[in-house]
Amino acid sequence: MSVEFVDTNIFFYSLDLTAGSKRHKAKSLIARLFETGAGAISTQVLIELYSTATRKLPLPAEELRATIAELDHWTVHQPSHASILSAIDLKDRHQIPWLDALILNSATELGCSILWTEDLSSGQQCGSVRVLNPFL
Hints:
With about 140 residues, this protein is α/β, with parallel strands linked by helices. The protein is about 55% helix and about 15% strand. It has a single domain (about 5-130), classed as Rossmann fold, CATH 3.40.50. The chain has helices at about 10-15, 20-35, 45-55, 60-70, 80-95, 100-110, and strands spanning about 5, 40, 75, 115, 125, 130. A hairpin with a 2-residue loop joins β5 (about 125) and β6 (about 130). About 35% of the residues are buried. The model has no long low-confidence stretch (mean pLDDT about 95).
């Protein structure tokens, strides 16, 4: 089975009641990945989601906690020291921002075929990972 990595922004839009069509597309993608068991994230995504959502969304803390708890069924990457060094190399090789390099490295280490994000160029191939923007 192919594993697909989901960046923080996709989860954020799925929770943002003001995100319109982005919310609908994000929720559909996340639902499909739950159904197929193909979803992957990293501890970075969980940390960023909690941090961003608590600052920017009028969401009850219990609801956000429950959303994050549900993701324990997904494949979760826990970056190691070696992962950080690999991400540095990816940052330099692809000329991408640091946090995006960490995400890309997690997707790579998990063997993901797709990285869903709006932060990188949709269609870009980075090693074995293809970057796709679900909102295009």
